[in-house]
Amino acid sequence: MAAPQGYPLLCLENPLLDIQGVGDEAMLEKYGVKANDAILAEEKHMGLYEDLLQNHDAKLIAGGAAQNTARGAQYMLPENSVVYIGCVGKDKYADILKETCEKAGVHTEYRVDEVQPTGKCGVIITGHNRSMITHLAAANEYKIEHLKQPHIWALVEKAQVYYVGGYHLTVSVPAVLALAEEAATNNKPFVFSLSAPFIPQFFKDQLDSVIPYVDYLIGNETEALAFSESHGWGLTDIAEIAKKLTTLEKKNTQRPRIVIVTQGTLPTVTAVSTASGIETKEYPVHEIPKEKINDTTGAGDAFAGGFVAGIVQGKSLEESIDQGQWLASLSIQELGPSFPFPKQTY
Ligand code: 26A
User: Fold this and answer.
1) Averaged in consecutive runs of 10 residues, what is the pLDDT profile of the chain (346 residues)?
2) 220 CA to middle of ligand 1, Å?
3) Which residue from 8, 85, 193, 204 has the fewest beta carbons nearer than 10 Å?
4) Residue 193 in contact with residue 66, Cβ under 8 Å?
5) Model pTM?
6) Please, where are the H alpha helices in 235-298?
7) Is the CB–ligand 1 distance for residue 121 below 6 Å?
């Protein structure tokens, strides 16, 4: 049952089940992937999922970048704070995703596709690297008509903050823009993640259509560099790229654009456009001892979760970033994009 008062945070993207196993160089070579890729699956990758399950003792873990972020945000917020939207199939994998969200207290409003199976992400772990190969399947069938149904749109209207993963630009730009318009028209924060270098590289036009609506743009250093390169900026300094991103067209002029670039264990860089110019800052991460790192898959999603929870709570930029870094440090001590139970408090 949907909460009658709605959910303050609404997230949209691709619900995926992660099939995660340990591989080696030979396996990466077999599928023609790099150690740290995030790509869409092609025909040559279709055997990967069975291979992971049969030969690499793969684990099934709830994934989908923004779905991880939704669970992360709910981890830090009062009950009934988050609703997540995306498209799944009619199968066991969808049941796992729904259950994981329910356990985390995230309300789901999935579109259920009758034909395609639930999307999956094959994750090949080699050391501290992870290569992600995504077969979107049902996740690719998300339709704006689902979002515009009266009972779903009512949740959109009641939401106070929106979080959309850039990965959704490969699926439904109209759905992303509908949320973006709702946010801009009503001066509600629209938070957007660049997700992966292939988004600015290969979905540049789609991305450029959404950027004017973005209040908080989150990415990591490789995504920022990919943005600079695909836009021919010739910039390689992260702070310079972040600065320039704040100057791009903005629809809602009541909010400055804020750009946040994470860099693994290096400090997080922010840029904010103010009346007196563009201000950049650096925030050190919450470093944990190397031996406590279990798996960094989803570290960025966890950061976004803690961060957006701060925005929902009306916290300052500094506090919101600190919450993101705290949640990321918890997540990398777990297997996959997960959070410790019993709950730790910030
Ligand atoms: C469209 N693509 C490629 C994707 C994804 C994705 N989530 C949505 N769309 N490719 C990988 N992921 C998710 O990223 C998380 C780690 O950050 C994986 O499911 C994984 O949980």
Assistant:
1) 81 98 97 96 97 97 97 98 98 98 98 98 94 98 98 98 98 98 98 98 98 98 98 98 97 97 96 92 92 92 98 98 97 93 93
2) 14
3) 204
4) yes
5) 0.97
6) 238-246
7) yes
